[in-house]
Write a structure and sequence with these properties.
The protein has a 6-stranded mixed β-sheet with strand order 9-10-8-7-6-11, covered by helices on one side. A 5-stranded antiparallel β-sheet has the order 2-1-5-4-3, with helices on both faces. The C terminus is likely disordered. The chain starts with a helix and ends in a 5-residue tail after the last strand. The protein has 14 helices and 11 strands. A hairpin with a 5-residue loop joins β1 and β2. It is elongated and about 125 Å long.
Length: 541
């Protein structure tokens, strides 16, 4: 800026003597430049720059008029641009009071400089007054807009750490969840409540709430009606369900939204549950009458489903977060067990083997104790490996719940010498992922109890899934509950808690002539005359 005003001054006046003001200005700028952080010298230096600049403006304007190069006092424009330097510096250093003081001093110095300059009396020239007024306005803009400039020049805040952000959000979610009516974020419970509300505003012999699942399919969260309905759960079919999902608009039809229907007059209404711009589910209403859903009824239904969409989305998101956290914790425990206790037990086993190999002759009693100890270590390692398998077992979204239970039962049956008999009746519709996970854990615990405590020879596993209904039954021909080991009772408590979490019922009954049957039932059983898609595996498979 000093070089610029020097060139402008020489051009406006043609008098090298006027460059003395530029040299004086450079001297005044030294404190603010060298001691820029000093609390006294830096402000004094900026004050000196303002005074010298404004006094020099009058002298340069007079010299320009005398040389007949720039008339009417406009020569002051040659040196006044330097006024931006001290004003901008003060503003960027967050000194608004200093900026205001410098503007006041500048106005006074301009008056003094114009009054004392000779010849021409620049203070009476309109060009001088215009130039001074222009730069006072620009100086004020610079001073008060610099805060915005400083924020733009400041580097952006670092991105929040994922775990810190997750902790903050989860803490808020916990507080909100506790303040909800009934403190519940259960998708099934919210869906059942929604169907109860709709029963009062629209006719319907059958109704259901469906939500999205993996693989482009829908899952049944809740259902009402005298009979179980095999709803269409694919989104690529020619149905009101697919149309409502794609258009986010209610769809009425004169045909059923089920895969099969006995015929007769039918009216169906499919209302999408939309949260923001995302479709999170559908509500289906059907009745055995024609034209049962005119526009007023559709409007009444949407007034109920609108607020329910937000509640259901919150419950589904909470379900996803809980499932992700649970799965991550299970994987972490599996890694810790594998890398910690399991490896140490293997080393203990190797140590016992080495001790057996170095026993002197005749130490038969010690050798027998070591063999018994080695067998016990081997048994514990086997149990740990089975526990790792249980921790890592998940329901494949393509394979289904029955396949996951079968794989687990087959693996544990082989390790214990059990003959495992399977009976599966699994619909193509799916349960919510969180519900399937809980049912798998209950089945795993029941199978593990039969293997460890029952002393059974045979294991019967029955899996019936017809969303939202499901029943998992595990029976054995062991000794029943004569064994009162605490760990077995603790397992039963865990199963009961898991069943309660998904609003299921746990039933434990004796099996005739021996053994125990553990069953978990979700929803009400379907009323069908035949078993659909039933598969009974050959005995012993």
């Amino acid at each position: 800026m000093l070089a610029l005003v020097a060139a402008l001054t020489l051009t406006a006046t043609g008098d090298p003597v006027q460059l003395g003001w530029i040299a004086l200005l450079a001297v005044a700028a030294v404190p603010a430049f060298v001691a820029r952080g000093h609390a006294v010298l830096a402000p004094l230096g900026r004050l000196g720059e303002v005074v010298v600049t404004c006094v020099a403006a009058g002298s340069v304007a007079a010299a320009a008029m005398a040389a007949d190069r720039v008339g009417a006092g406009f020569g002051a424009e040659a040196v006044l641009p330097y006024l931006a330097v001290p004003l901008l510096t003060a503003a960027l250093r967050r000194r608004p009071s200093e900026s205001i003081t410098l503007l006041g001093v500048a106005a006074a110095a301009m008056v003094v400089g114009g009054a004392v300059a000779e010849p021409g009396d620049p203070l009476r020239q309109p060009g001088y007054l215009a130039a001074c007024g222009q730069w006072l306005v620009l100086g004020a803009i610079i001073a008060f807009a610099a805060e915005t400039m400083r924020q733009l020049l400041q580097p952006p805040d670092p991105t929040p750490q994922p775990y810190a952000e997750a902790t903050r959000l989860l803490t808020q979610l916990r507080s909100v969840a506790r303040s909800l009516p009934g403190a519940t974020l259960d998708p099934g419970g919210i869906s059942e409540h929604l169907l109860e509300e709709l029963r009062a505003v629209a006719p319907g012999h059958r109704a259901a709430v469906l939500s999205a699942s993996g693989g482009g399919r829908l899952v049944v969260l809740a259902q009402t009606g005298a009979e179980r309905v095999d709803w269409e759960t694919t989104l690529d079919a020619d149905s009101g369900i697919a149309d409502a999902w794609a258009t986010q608009q209610p769809q009425t039809a004169s045909r059923s939204q089920a895969r099969s229907h006995p015929g007769g007059d039918v009216s169906s209404l499919v209302v999408p549950l939309v949260a923001g711009v995302r479709t999170i589910g559908l509500v289906i209403l059907e009745t055995d009458a024609a034209g049962a859903y005119p526009s007023p009824v559709v409007q009444a239904v949407t007034e109920v489903t609108g607020p329910a969409s937000l509640r259901l989305e919150a419950a589904l998101l909470f379900d996803d977060v809980r499932s992700l956290a649970t799965n991550e914790e299970r994987q972490r425990l599996a890694r810790e067990i594998h890398d910690g206790v399991a490896q140490e037990l293997v080393m203990v086993g190797y140590g016992i083997d080495n001790a057996q190999a170095t026993l002197p002759e005749g130490a038969e009693e010690t050798a027998e104790e070591l063999r018994a100890l080695r067998a016990e270590v081997t048994r514990v390692i086997t149990e740990l490996r089975l526990s790792l398998f249980e921790l890592r077992s998940e329901v494949d979204r393509n394979g289904g719940l029955a396949a996951a239970i079968a794989e687990y039962a087959r693996t544990l049956g082989t390790s214990a010498g059990l003959r495992v008999h399977f009976t599966f009746d699994e619909s193509t519709a799916r349960l919510p992922a969180a519900t399937e996970a809980e049912l798998l854990r209950i089945a795993q615990e029941a199978i593990t109890n039969a293997r460890k405590h029952a002393g059974a020879s045979n294991l019967w596993v029955t899996c019936t899934v017809d969303p939202p209904y499901a029943e998992i039954e595990v029976s054995d021909d062991g000794k029943g509950f004569a064994d009162t080991r605490p760990d077995g009772r603790y397992g039963l408590t865990i199963m009961a808690e898991r069943a309660e979490r998904i609003r299921g019922r746990l039933k434990i009954t004796p099996r005739h002539p021996s053994g125990t049957t553990v069953a978990v039932v979700l929803g009400t059983p379907p009323r069908r005359d035949s078993v659909r898609d039933s598969v009974s595996a050959p005995e012993g498979e």
